[in-house]
Amino acid sequence: MSSEKADAELKLGPVGPRPYWVVLVSVVIRAMHQIGGAVYLSSFLLDEIVGPPAFYLWLAVISGVALVGTETMRHRQLYREVAGLATIFKVVLLGIAFHGYLPETATVVVAFFAAALAAHLPKNIRHRLVF
């Protein structure tokens, strides 16, 4: 089976229009999310930082919610796609770490690792409908 034929058989989530300015703003939001996430992650990996700084924690949370909003404008069933499920998985893992059900550092690193993998998957996999 050719690669194009296999791609055609994959069921991708429906897409909708998104104004170009939203795309440009989402790039800036994504950069802010990466900065907030990086400082949040470093607070678990470096002993010099005691707990995640509140500003960067809220920067990561607010920009993350904004990113899900901009992605939902384009990918109408994001929660059914691999990308959306990876986001839900990441949030659940961060909640588990926050409440101390699993070791914080390892759980946060796994959450960030899973998010990085999901974000860099090819489009035909990232936006594939899981159910």
Please summarize what this structure is.
By secondary structure, this protein is mainly alpha-helical. The chain contains six helices and no strands. It has two domains: 18-74; 77-131.
Write the layout of secondary structure elements.
Blueprint: H1 3-9, H2 20-45, H3 54-74, H4 82-98, H5 104-119, H6 123-126
Helix pairs in contact: 2-3, 4-5
Plain-language structure description:
The structure is a single chain. This protein is mainly α. It is 69% helix and 0% strand. It has six helices and no strands. The chain is globular and about 50 Å long. The two termini are 24 Å apart.
Q: Quick one: overall form?
A: globular
Percentage beta strand: under 5%
Overall number of strands? 0
Count of all domains: 2
Sequence stretches where pLDDT stays below 50 over 5 or more residues: none
Helical content stands at 55-70%
Q: How far apart, in Å, are the first and last alpha carbons?
A: 24 Å
Structural class: mainly alpha
Mean pLDDT: 91
Radius of gyration from CA coordinates: 16 Å
| SSE arrangement, N to C | HHHHHH
- How many helix segments? 6
Summarize the biggest pleated sheet.
none
What labels describe this entry?
single chain; 131 residues; 2 domains; 6 helices
